[in-house]
Amino acid sequence: MAKVSFDEELCKGCGLCELACPKQIIILSKEKINAKGYHPAQVIEQEKCIGCAFCATMCPDSVIRVEK
Q1: How far apart are CA 68 and CA 60, in angstroms?
Q2: pLDDT along the chain (68 residues), means of 10
Q3: Environment class of 21 (CB within 10 Å of its CB; exposed 0-12, middle 13-18, buried 19+)
């Protein structure tokens, strides 16, 4: 099973990963705010991840890691 992780403190909350995910399992957190004042991205249903890494490819700041 694939696992997606984010460096939440570096995430700017741009939402590109959210748009790129074919399984629609990435959202911007409504509760969390990082040190820079952004709502970081998070995975809501990790078990549905297929490991395509589209999210990591789209991230302009390289804060996403996909492990297969």
Answers
A1: 21
A2: 93 97 96 95 95 97 94
A3: buried
